[in-house]
Write a structure and sequence with these properties.
This protein is of the alpha/beta class. The protein is built from six helices and eight strands. It has a domain of 183 residues: Roll (2,3-Dihydroxybiphenyl 1,2-Dioxygenase, domain 1), CATH 3.10.180. 34% of the residues lie in helices and 23% in strands. The strands form two sheets. Strands 1-4-3-2 form a four-stranded mixed β-sheet, with helices on one face. The longest helix is centred in the N-terminal third of the chain and has 41 residues. This is VOC domain-containing protein. Keywords: Signal.
């Protein structure tokens, strides 16, 4: 009888201990996601999924750190910043600010097209562009008398690595010119013949006429207008030299296709381009 009286308290204690442990495990299981969510929320992240993966955390961290990055400017070195400013004015750029960068005179040039809400999100929709001009001082250039230094002709040195050219989207410029010249093609008639009305070549011709009238100089063409399909878009493109010989690409979204062209990352067989 005595043994049984002792066993009962022991059994009761063991049962109570089992209940405590079970409750603790259950409480931890229920509250862990909440605690994790609270901790992550303090770090600007909120994960409420019990199946949190490291990839999700990394992705959210990258989005928080880099999601708002936008291109601020492209920098171009020049031997004469006044001449460079005149050249880029042909392309609609105006001086935003002048400043010093060490011994060099420098300037931000900005091109801010008129807002056009109906084009928002469309290929070639207007966006702000900014160029930084940096003038290399004469004492650093050390040009021999009667000579003039120019940028390396990257159109002829295709194996050089690094930044290659500045690309400007002139899609909207061409569209506006078509409207001004009453050369808008009805949607049902859009085809490859559209470029014969007013395309990139016509726009460059008009730009060259303006350059001659304003500065008495012809534009220097590095690559004449051509076409290339990227994804479902047919682009027109051409390359100019700026006042110092740096490459400038002019790009126009010519038209959209119903089909998407393969990336072409397989070994190139010379096909896949529109001539």
């Amino acid at each position: 009888m005595r043994v049984r009286m002792i066993e009962k308290p022991v059994v009761s204690c063991l049962r109570l201990l089992w209940l405590v442990i079970s409750f603790s495990q259950c409480h931890a299981f229920i509250t862990a996601p909440i605690v994790k969510s609270t901790i992550l929320s303090r770090g600007k992240f909120s994960y409420r999924d019990n199946g949190l993966r490291e990839m999700d955390r990394t992705s959210a961290l990258m989005n928080s750190l880099t999601g708002a990055i936008v291109a601020h400017h492209s920098a171009v070195k020049t031997r004469d910043i006044e001449v460079a400013i005149k050249f880029y004015s042909l392309l609609g750029f105006r001086v935003e600010a002048k400043f010093r960068a060490g011994p060099a005179r420098a300037a931000f040039l900005t091109n801010v097209p008129l807002a056009d809400k109906e084009n928002e999100g469309r290929v070639g929709a207007p966006t702000q562009s900014r160029i930084e001009l940096l003038e290399v001082p004469a004492y650093m250039l050390q040009e021999a008398e009667g000579t003039r230094k120019r940028a390396i002709d990257l159109a002829k040195h295709e194996t050089l690595l690094g930044l290659n050219h500045l690309a400007l989207d002139v899609t909207e410029c061409i569209r506006q010119r078509r409207i001004e010249e009453d050369m808008v093609v009805p949607p049902e008639e859009v085809s490859g013949a559209q470029c014969s009305l007013y395309g990139l070549q016509s726009w460059i011709d008009d730009l060259n006429s303006m350059s001659i009238a304003t500065f008495g100089k012809n534009l220097r063409i590095a690559v004449s207008p051509d076409k290339q399909i990227i994804g479902s878009t047919v682009y027109e493109y051409a390359f100019l030299y700026d006042a110092d010989g740096s490459l400038i690409e002019l790009v126009s979204a010519h038209r959209e296709r119903d089909t998407v062209v393969d990336s072409g990352w397989e070994p190139w067989d010379g096909s896949g381009f529109m001539q």
